[in-house]
Amino acid sequence: MSRDALVFEDLSFTYAEQKVLDGIDLTVPAGQVTALMGPSGCGKSTLVSLAAGLLAPTSGRARGENKRVGVLFQDPLLLPWRTALANVGFALKADGVSAGERKDRGRAALATVGLSGGDIDKYPRQLSGGMRQRVALARALVIKPDLLLLDEPLSGLDVSLARQMLALVRSVVEADGVSAMVVTHDAREAARFAERVYVLSAGPAQVMVFRELPGRPGARSEIEIEDATEAIVTDLEHIDAKATA
Amino acid sequence: MRKDETRALNGRKPQRAAWGYGLVGIALLLGLWEWGHHAYGSLVLPSLADTAQTLMAMIADGKVGPALWTTFGNSAMGWAVGVLAGSLAGTLAGLRDGVRLTLQPISVILLGVPAIAWIVLALLWFGGRWAVVFTVGVAIAPIVFAAAVQGARSLDGELARMARAFRAPFSALAVDVYGPHMFSYLFPALATTLAMSWKVSVMAELLSGSGGIGDGIATARAQVDTAATMAWIVVVVCVLVVVDNLILRNMQNRMELWRLDDTGRRS
Asked: Is A115 on the interface with B (CB under 8 A)?
């Protein structure tokens, strides 16, 4: 039986006396991609912050034994006064990695996401939106994470680049046994790249639907992807209808 | 032709033109000076040649070097004290509303006190070179304070959140997140107060008689030696021009790199 990378048990979170998450039970199995979907503002990003240890639950618990957590936020959140290479190297400072090794590993991580040459010495302001997001992905990957948390990181990218990035995440998951939790609004991407999908209700968020998708994501046929997409879209429509009723 | 090459070529022309205009401005000022000398005589305004000769004689007599060193020491110490006090208090005030609301009126009052009044008070309280150091410090601290408040109040919480997500140690937070942000706010104030510290220092030395360029100007005034007075002024201006062009502008250009977009423009 596979190990669980992250488990939320009856987890609730309240902010400014307003309940954001209400009794969330969710499991991210090791070496798999778990997609998190739901209406805008329902608390998905809060769940990512709880998973990253940036917030503490009001009740319930979040458990996982991940030593290295790589996070990719909605906004790339790059240090504007550091080059792309230095931004990637920044993630290694927690491990006390030497400056030389930070550069070497940073270069390799940037090459993985398709950035090399003069681009790695550019400042974030000199890079396009897609390039910045790739730098942020390289920063999340350079630490060789056990767990990757991706909070709608590809929403601003064009479709082909977003797909490339997700394919890269998928290949890292398969090659290194990394676990990933991906917040997304795109049912098709979830159906293509994830093993399981959780759909949350509007806030205070609860898990409304849990789907284990058939087969391995890489081996899924277009028909299977189409069916899974339809099923997820139906789930989302039901939740929308309930919220507006 | 590559985009950056074109940009470099386009950048040379305006730079050359700027130098040209600058030289015209300096020539105009020197011309006015010489005209003033002819119009009002040497007692009011010595000629350029007289001033240059007096300056050379002062350098040969070994007056300029020690005076420069003394003024440098006084202004540097005062500047360091003012920067330290202003930035620490300003950062604290930027982070804590209570501290800001308490210190802001004090800062406004200190800014309102003329530097000359501080010199008189400092002479009564300390006397000698410490009066100069104190005056410089107290004159520049409120300016640095205001910049530090702005810097601390605009710290980017999201970047700190990112740093915490990657478990960045405190040293990395200080060097990579908070430090550069604060420095980008403090730098203009540091540059302004660096020049100001020299001017205040010379003024305080003039009244305190504790050595330095100000003391030299006081002696020249007592001897009604306008050429020596102008020579000392030339020394101060040269120091400020050198500091501004060789140090501050270079630092500023390096610091501004990250603010430029892909077309080389500041966005």
From this structure: no
